[in-house]
């Protein structure tokens, strides 16, 4: 079996695709702030809580657009102050997005199972980011980076959700039919993928100059 590391080109293409999807999905979420913008899909719980949905969509969309840049090694090395500013902006957007997600999850269509899935996503989103902030404030940079990978894996649930909705729509499956499953499939695979990425690279303590989660990005 070939265990050679992935080439820089593969990493750059993967990072570029991640940035593109994050920008497209994040920008699409910002449209809900426009007056008279219809909901898509027009689910009953979102119609009742439209103002809360707008707050959640805008803040989560901004977090999604900011998140990938935290994994650009070149930016972090050359512009550490900008890296920190983007990081705190990401955390602030995530705080608003996560807190607004919880009441939306409590009213999610699909019953208790869907509500539990979206609720755990919101709690995990807030929790992983809080742990990442605690580590960076304590100077544990390697641990901070690992937890930021987990945080963004949950942020990227927005990408997974839109992709799965698109596939379902392409096959003519009504969103109401798959909504309960989406409450889990939009984020659980992301978490598993993040852990698989982190597992062979985990180190016991700081500093760990040989490990870079940003190998997903550009050097």
Your description of this structure?
The chain has 219 residues and is an all-alpha fold. It has one domain. Helix 6 packs antiparallel against helix 7. The longest helix is centred in the middle third of the chain and has 27 residues. The protein is globular and about 45 Å long.
- Major beta sheet, specifics? none
Q: For the CA atoms, what is the radius of gyration? A: 18 Å
* Helix-strand string: HHHHHHHHHH
Number of domains: 1
Poorly predicted runs are: 1-5, 207-219
Number of helices: 10
Task: Summarize the topology.
Layout: H1 8-30, H2 44-48, H3 50-66, H4 73-78, H5 80-106, H6 112-137, H7 141-155, H8 157-170, H9 175-185, H10 188-198
């Amino acid at each position: 079996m070939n265990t050679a590391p992935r080439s820089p080109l593969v990493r750059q293409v993967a990072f570029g695709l991640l940035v593109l999807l994050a920008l497209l999905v994040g920008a699409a979420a910002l449209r809900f702030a426009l007056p008279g913008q219809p909901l898509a899909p027009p689910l009953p719980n979102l119609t009742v809580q439209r103002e809360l949905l707008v707050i959640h969509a805008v803040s989560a969309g901004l977090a999604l657009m900011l998140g990938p840049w935290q994994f650009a090694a070149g930016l972090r090395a050359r512009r550490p102050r900008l890296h920190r500013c983007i990081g705190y902006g990401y955390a602030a957007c995530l705080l608003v997005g996560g807190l607004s997600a919880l009441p939306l999850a409590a009213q999610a269509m699909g019953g208790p199972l869907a509500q539990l899935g979206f609720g755990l996503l919101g709690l995990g989103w807030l929790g992983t980011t809080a742990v990442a902030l605690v580590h960076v404030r304590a100077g544990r940079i390697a641990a901070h980076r690992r937890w930021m990978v987990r945080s963004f894996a949950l942020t990227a649930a927005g990408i997974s959700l839109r992709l799965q909705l698109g596939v379902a729509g392409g096959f003519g499956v009504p969103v109401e039919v798959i909504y309960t499953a989406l409450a889990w499939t939009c984020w659980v695979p992301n978490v598993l993928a993040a852990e698989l990425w982190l597992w062979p690279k985990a180190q016991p303590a700081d500093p760990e100059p040989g490990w870079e989660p940003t190998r997903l990005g550009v050097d």
